[in-house]
Design goal:
- The chain is mainly alpha-helical.
- The chain contains 30 helices and eight strands.
- Strands 5-4-3-6 form a four-stranded mixed beta sheet.
- Helix 12 (358-388) packs antiparallel against helix 14 (405-415).
- Mean pLDDT is 79; it is low at 1-17, 38-42, 116-128 and 759-802.
């Protein structure tokens, strides 16, 4: 059960990636359909007034066209027929009458209070005498107070003479009654605030709306209403029969008060008028006329007029509405089926399965969207340039300049040529559809993208991009010429523009690739060959530190790098990536170098004083330390993954056996002495695991003959394979056989016997007893060297010894 759960956990990321690739594919197809949306109709007509029709156009179906002139006339008529609304407020006359009556009543009451002083209080006290000046002042103040109170109640200004007349008349009830009659008659006729504006509506009339009853009536006789000045004039005329029994002064007072109190009771309601005009405008339906199917809209060679444009634009709109859903669905299905077929043919039964990881699937989706976006921008730019550039450049010429090959070049850099080729096929199909379903564009962009990817697949220098761009530009010229001849459009000027645009398209693809590659490398944590070349420099700080602080590990890492580089070339893996991973796989040992046997001196082993469990923890820790150092030095995720995986889940056999001898077999758990893993996930990581074990073990051979080295390599590779450490890295038995052969060749070269030099070699050679001088024992030859060197005068003794 434990092993099954472990397998499920290991398979979970892959299953999640397989589930994620369908939404990503749907996203790419959705973007494609959105970009294709303007071109989903059968044929778009990009004519302007004055252009010459290049072909005859007939109506594909019955459709209606709006008569914009008639519709606009109907709208103007509807607006003109909407009458202006005026509000009539009948309450104003009543309100004025009430305020006048109330003001006179209050003043009469005040007069009565002042004319009848309060009765005595019964006090016998003698009042102080009051001077005449104080009495006059008091009366004057009372008079002004009454006047202000009256003006406030009336809401008008009152002259001193008029107020004296009112006092003399004791604010007679006759005065407000006559004022009310005059105002009622004036307001009954109607008073407007601005008669000049009102008279502008004389021809059509207006709507009078009673604000109290909310009833309306149309009125055409507008001159009957009084304006403000006319109302004041009419006050004197209306007042003559009503005040003929009064004296002259009182008549003037009543007329003056009435003129001040008259107010407009008919006002313009602009808001309601505008609302009614808007409603009338919205209620007007477009005036349409029918075009029958097959009706000739414009003939070939005919000059395009505004009427032609109306009909052609109507065809585009109505055809788009009719066919948009079906055409969009059809285009989406075509691309989806094509992607599925390409995936099945190229990746389903291959070791290269880029869609099995979310990172790769997302990258491919974005690359495809980028290519579609470039094609769409090229299509838009060609339409704009055709109308704005003074000299003629056809849309097909501008399409050749689209740097669509940059998508395949980027895919090749990050995922390899095996993935870039089918990507070029899919992207070429989408681009051809976006550019008008033209077969010549499909061939052009397919070959251009494939060759661009081919020329950057071994890119290890920046200039390779521009070399590939120049080559791509030249082959684009050949492809553009073929496309022009295929479409029978190869006039002299047209062919020159095709060549210029095609060559610039190759250069632009290289520029886009150079500019976008570093961004994608940082975003998706990819590592290119250019970056690997920088990391392969042995003068990098971390490798120099490893050389100085852990020289044995450094030497071991360099040899591992050489082993995996040669083996990777034999099995078709990435030799540069494998070599760099070999250089950095043990950088974690730099933190505690003396706890690893290759760095120990004088036979002192620090593990002799430690418990086996502690020793195993120290060994396991170098993986974690290596990951931290790699991330700190920004070595890239692929290097980090190799450091984490290069021991897999293998057992630290020496300390495990030592612990079992000390504590007993049942008291020790094997899992406590295993590296945490995971197992190698790539072929390069698997190579590093094999080379790490083989190189370390080869140092223990006393007499490393080719046969012994071959047996050692075969035994160790079989052991690692049997332990299941290579289950996830896609190394086949054929690959393992090639790897073992490569390791044998290099290790035999490293451990070959060397001849002796100097006096010792000459003396031993003269004896001739042992034949081959390479067979002399190391200890014997070194003793002779010391004796011979001691006899040499001026020789530096004990050179290099502690």
């Amino acid at each position: 059960m434990g092993s099954e759960n472990k397998k499920k956990k290991q398979q979970k990321p892959g299953s999640m990636a397989r589930q994620a690739r369908w939404p990503l594919m749907a996203l790419a197809i959705g973007v494609f359909v959105v970009l294709l949306y303007p071109n989903l109709v059968v044929q778009r007509h990009h004519y302007r007034a004055g252009d010459i029709a290049d072909r005859s156009i007939k109506a594909p179906q019955d459709f209606f066209i709006e008569d914009q002139a008639a519709t606009e006339a109907s709208r103007r008529q509807a607006v003109e027929q909407t009458l202006t609304v005026y509000d009539h407020d009948p309450r104003i006359s009543h309100q004025v009458a009430e305020s006048v009556s109330r003001a006179f009543a209050e003043m009469r009451k005040i007069e009565e209070d002042f004319g009848h002083p309060a009765a005595g209080t019964g006090s016998t006290a003698v009042e102080e005498p009051v001077s005449p000046e104080s009495i006059d002042q008091k009366r004057n103040n009372e008079w002004w107070a009454k006047k202000e109170a009256f003006e406030a109640a009336m809401g008008i200004s009152v002259s001193d003479g008029a107020f004296k007349i009112l006092i003399s008349q004791s604010f007679s009830k006759v005065i407000p009654e006559r004022i009310t009659k005059i105002l009622n008659e004036i307001h009954a006729n109607g008073v407007v605030s601005n008669k000049e504006i009102l008279l502008k509506e004389s021809e059509r009339g207006i709507i009078i709306r009673n604000v109290v009853t909310q009833t309306e009536k149309p009125v055409s006789a507008l001159r009957q209403y009084y304006g403000p000045d006319q109302a004041k004039t009419m006050v004197r005329i209306v007042a003559e029969p009503l005040v003929e029994d009064l004296n002259y002064n009182l008549v003037n007072l009543i007329v003056d008060f009435s003129q001040q109190l008259v107010q407009p009771n008919i006002t313009l309601n602009r808001h309601e008028t505008e609302n009614r005009k808007a409603q009338a405008l919205a209620s007007v339906k477009p005036v349409m006329y029918q075009i029958k199917a097959g009706e000739m809209l414009v003939r070939e060679g005919e000059r395009i007029t505004p009427d032609h444009l109306i009909k052609l634009n109507a065809i585009d709109r109505q055809t788009e509405n009719t066919h948009m859903a079906s055409a969009g669905l059809g285009a989406a299905l075509i691309l989806a089926v094509f992607i599925a077929v390409v995936y099945t043919l190229f990746f389903n039964h291959s070791r290269h399965k880029p869609l099995d990881t979310n990172k790769n699937a997302t990258f491919l989706c974005l690359a495809l969207i980028m290519v579609f976006g470039i094609a769409k921008m090229s299509d838009i730019f060609s339409a704009v340039a055709a109308s704005q550039i003074p000299f003629t450049i056809s849309s097909s010429s501008i399409a050749f300049a689209a740097p669509a090959a940059a998508g395949s070049m980027l895919v090749c850099i990050f995922l390899g040529f095996e993935v870039a080729l089918p990507f070029a096929l899919v992207s070429a199909v989408g681009v051809a559809i976006l550019l008008g379903n033209r077969i010549e564009f499909f061939v052009f962009f397919l070959i251009s993208s494939a060759m661009g990817a081919f020329w950057v697949q071994h890119c290890r220098e920046r200039k390779t991009f521009f070399t590939a761009g120049a080559r791509l530009g030249l082959i684009n010229i050949v492809l553009a010429t073929s496309a022009s001849i295929f479409s029978s459009d190869y006039a002299g000027w047209k062919l020159l523009t095709d060549w210029a645009m095609a060559f610039s398209g190759g250069i632009a693809s290289a520029i886009v690739t150079v500019g976008v590659a570093p961004l994608l490398e940082m975003s998706f944590h990819y590592t290119t060959d250019i970056t690997l070349l920088e990391l392969a420099n042995l003068d990098r700080p971390i490798l120099r530190r490893l050389m100085l602080e852990a020289p044995g590990t450094y030497h071991h890492s360099v040899i591992v790098g050489s082993l995996v580089e040669a083996a990777a070339a034999d099995i078709g893996a990435n030799p540069l990536l494998a070599k760099v991973c070999g250089y950095y796989h043990d950088i974690g040992k730099v933190k505690k170098p003396l706890y690893f046997i290759e760095n120990q001196r004088n036979g002192k082993n620090k593990h002799d004083k430690l418990a086996p469990s502690m020793s195993s923890l120290i060994l396991i820790a170098h993986v974690k330390d290596g990951i931290e150092i790699a991330r700190k030095n920004k070595l890239g995720q692929v290097i980090v993954d190799t450091i984490q995986q290069h021991h897999g889940t293998s057992l630290i056999v020496y300390f495990y056996d030592k612990a079992r001898q000390m504590k007993g077999q049942e008291a020790v758990k094997a899992d406590d002495y295993r590296y945490p893993g995971p197992k190698p996930q790539t072929r390069e990581a698997g190579l590093v695991m094999l080379a790490d074990v083989v190189e370390a073990a080869s140092r223990t051979l006393e007499n490393p003959t080719p046969a012994r080295i071959q047996g050692l390599v075969q035994n160790l590779v079989n052991k690692i394979f049997s332990d299941g450490q290579l289950d996830d890295c896609e190394l086949t038995l054929k690959d393992l056989h090639s790897i073992a052969k490569s390791f044998n060749k290099i290790l035999t070269g490293i451990h070959h016997h060397r001849i002796e030099y100097g006096e010792t070699a000459r003396k031993e050679g003269s004896r001739g007893k042992h034949g081959n001088p390479d067979r002399q024992s190391t200890e014997k030859s070194s003793d002779k060297d010391q004796r011979s060197s001691s006899r040499s005068p001026g020789h530096l003794k004990r050179l290099g010894l502690p």
